Amino acid sequence: MFRRRNKSNFFHKVRSFLWPSLGWKRSTQYLFHRIGRLPGTPYSTAAGFACGAAISFTPFVGIHIVLAGLIAWVIRANIMAAVIGTTIGNPWTFPFIWAFIFNLGVWLGAAGSGANASELDFQTIFSTSLDAIFTYDLSYLFETAWPVLWPMFIGGAPTFIVIWLLFYFSLRPLIKRYQSKRRKGVILENDVSKERENY
User: Fold this and answer.
1) 66-93 burial, b if ≥16 CB within 10 A, otherwise e?
2) Within-domain flag for 178
3) What's the CA dihedral at 101, 104, 109, 115 to 10 degrees?
4) N or C: which end of the chain has fewer CB within 10 A?
């Protein structure tokens, strides 16, 4: 009943993920509508989204959603907002995030001064690290992956805090204003429904 009449193929799904059909501006507006309409206080929603955004700046690729939900649960934030917040980490932003936290970790002294993020293949490192975890290949983790993951962890820790504070204090007043307008009936339900249909 609620399914699409014409199922989209795999290529269309990938293309929509990498480049939204609505464009980035309208997709961002739709995302903010979704966040603002989540149940909960401005604190819980903003803090939850901040958890998801901040965890994207850590090297725990593959478990970002789990960690974001766990942290949100600990601080009594909105878990769904945390899941949505992990979209900050995506194929467009990850290369910049990984290079930044790696170089920051090197700058903080977590690796040799000669290390350079431009010479690393992060995608291969993460995929082989997951394989090594599932196959209990600890020698690979400590000999090959760890010299890369450790600087990323050291660089990601302070970045996590900064990103969390940035998103939380930026979103909380916006969400509070949005929810207040909704209660006063300024935001029409028809406008949101049109956004959903177009999406």
Assistant:
1) ebbbebbeeeebbbbbbbbbbbbbeeee
2) yes
3) 80
4) N
Q: Is residue 119 part of a domain?
A: yes
Q: Say how far apart CA 41 and CA 108 lie, in whole Å.
A: 37
**How many DSSP H helices and E strands does the chain contain?**
10, 0
Tokens of 187: 């935001």
pTM of the predicted structure, to 2 decimals: 0.71
Task: Confirm whether 82 is domain-assigned.
Answer: yes
Nearest to 92 by CA among 162, 165, 28, 49: 28
Residue 91 is classified by DSSP as T
Of 20, 71, 49, nearest to 169 by C-alpha is: 49
What would the pLDDT profile of 11-20 be if each residue is shown by its tens digit?
A: 554 445 444 5
Q: Is 4 exposed, middle or buried (0-12, 13-18, 19+ CB in 10 A)?
A: exposed
Is 191 a residue whose pLDDT tops 80?
A: no
The closest of 83, 82, 86 to 48, measured between CA atoms, is: 82
Name which of 196, 102, 180 is nearest 147 in CA terms.
Answer: 102
83: nearest Cα among 53, 44, 125: 53
Tell me which residue range forms the domain holding 115: 40-198
Number of domains composing the chain: 1
